[in-house]
Amino acid sequence: MERIQKRPFPRGNTADILNYLEELILLQAKEEGYFPISEALGGYQDIEITATQAVSLQVPQKAVSAVLVLEADSTSSSFVRIVRFKENGSAPTASSGFALGDNDIYSIVGKNNLENFKVIGIEKDKKHIGRIQFFETNQFKFKL
Question: Which of 9, 13, 37, 68, CA to CA, is 20 to 30 A from 3?
Answer without folding.
Answer: 37
